[in-house]
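Before a colleague's protein record goes any further, I have to sign it off. Thanks in advance; the entry in question is below:
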Amino acid sequence: DGMLLTTEKYAVAEALNICPRETHTVKDVVRTLFEILDFNPKVVFNSKKPSAIPYKASDPSKAREVLRWEAKISLKEGLKRTMDWYVENVQNAKAAPAKVGRKAAA
């Protein structure tokens, strides 16, 4: 709902963080996504390659001020809803699981 509200009420060419005030590492996001998808691959991070940032901490205060909006769902719930929408709405998603959280039929 934050993204839609932004397009309706904040047509300004500048950043506006639509997010909760949480900090997540890339590993947190990857693990959460795989948990939602009921997918358990071996993930190997290449420690020899530089990383721009070890974690992401966004400040949603501008969205709260400009839109009078605050996030009401967690990262996990947001990712789950996004994946459910993708599976239901993207024509080329035939290879994706029928519903997020369930394994695809073999």
Q: What stands out?
A: The first strand starts at residue 23 and ends at 25. The mean pLDDT is 78. DSSP finds four helices and two strands in the chain.
